[in-house]
Design a protein that fits this description.
The chain is about 30% helix and about 10% strand. By secondary structure, it is α/β, with parallel strands linked by helices. It has a seven-stranded mixed β-sheet. It has a three-stranded mixed β-sheet with strand order 1-5-4. The longest helix has 17 residues. The relative contact order is 0.12.
């Protein structure tokens, strides 16, 4: 397999909107020295069925899948902005193609672009369940909540075929180690049986991300994610299965989606969401230029307004990476968003009770074998 380098894909002239893709740009990698992904088995490259595209739509970009060479599966962080220290991502890159995705720059560490390559060249961790089994079975493992999908979505389209996320959940269930999932994919309901096992031990929670109720906006902003209606149905189904589920308004885009806050909160609460949280748009590294180009392409009449609001939230800049501020923003518009959220939660009667996930039931292999010895 030949290594793929930033800039591959459509030529620079192809700057029209690409059907079912979030961006039409493939900017150069921000690092001077590229990191090539080690050669491995090349998985089937396929064009998955796209419910939004016309049969004769052009141009089209084919999605390719590559073996990920990672030898570890759980990453740790010390961010005071996050509710977890450990996370697991079965995939690198995300076919959902959300234009605002803060994870796009992470693809540049692999020698790829944060643009089209982030959503069309996906690295899959086929060994993830085995690596996780080894990690949780190690005496050095400290039982704790593991976030699944904190960077890229664990239920993007290829998961229906590969079932890597499901394999990881089965390992978590075996050890009864708590997990918290973030996803825009309705496929999470496929794994309700495993999540229900974990939920019996207060060891599972699902966060369904909903950014808009406008299907047309969703089609161009999050082209391969489940439509808004399907996500609300997902919340309702998980609720019926007695699996703790909430909704994340993430991100709220000032001047574009902030007016939808009350409607999303109400719809999420009616569907059974036990909590609704929010994150304000942030545009790290190359995401800013990609997002601005997307605005100019799809919403030229309001692009300036949206970007000016973003700068108001970020102290005059496109992005503010500081802890405590990066998720919430600051200034008048930030306070308006937070106040609108608080009012919407009260009016909808949202319980807003996040579950307290527990490690009390955690068990390792030796613990499970004790009954064999009386």
């Amino acid at each position: 397999m030949k290594p793929n380098r930033p800039g591959s894909g459509p030529p620079p002239a192809a700057r029209v909107a690409i059907r079912s893709r979030g961006t039409a740009e493939n900017p150069p990698n921000r690092f001077e020295r590229l990191i090539e992904v080690a050669d491995g088995e090349f998985l089937d490259s396929e064009r998955l069925p796209d419910p939004f595209s016309d049969s004769d739509a052009v141009p089209q970009i084919r999605t390719e899948y590559f073996q990920d060479p990672s030898r570890t599966i759980i990453a740790f962080n010390k961010s005071p902005d996050l509710h977890f220290d450990a996370s697991l991502n079965p995939y690198r890159g995300c076919e959902h193609g959300c234009i605002y995705c803060y994870a796009r720059p992470s693809h540049e560490y692999l020698g790829f672009s944060a643009g089209l390559e982030f959503e069309s060249k996906i690295l899959v961790k086929t060994d993830a369940p085995r690596l996780l089994q080894d990690k949780l079975g190690s005496r050095s493992w400290k039982p704790q909540v593991v976030a699944i999908g904190a960077n890229t979505d664990p239920y993007q389209p290829i998961e229906a075929k590969l079932k890597i996320t499901r394999g990881c959940l089965e390992v978590f269930a075996e050890f009864r180690n708590p997990v918290a999932i973030v996803t825009k994919g309705s496929l999470v309901t496929r794994d309700s049986d495993v999540l229900a096992q974990l939920a019996r031990f207060d060891a599972a929670a699902v966060n369904v991300s909903i950014t808009t109720l406008d299907r047309d906006l969703g089609r161009i902003m999050e082209p391969r994610a489940a439509p808004p209606r399907r996500r609300l149905e997902t919340v309702a189904e998980l609720t019926r299965q007695k699996i703790p589920v909430g909704v994340m308004l993430a991100p709220i885009i000032p001047g574009l989606t902030d007016h939808e806050i009350p409607a999303i909160v109400e719809a999420a609460t009616r569907a059974g969401a036990q909590w609704v949280a929010h994150v304000v748009l942030r545009l790290p590294h190359g995401v800013g230029p990609l997002f601005e180009a997307w605005l100019q392409r799809h919403f030229p009449d309001r692009a300036s307004k949206v970007m000016n609001r973003v700068r108001e939230l970020r102290g005059g800049r496109i992005n503010d990476p500081r802890f405590h501020s990066r998720m919430r923003g600051e200034g008048v518009f930030a306070e308006q968003i937070h106040s609108m959220m608080a009012l919407a939660l009260r009016r909808a009667g949202t319980p807003n009770a996040r579950p307290s996930l527990s490690t009390d039931a955690f068990r390792q292999a030796s613990d499970k074998q004790l009954p064999l010895f009386g």
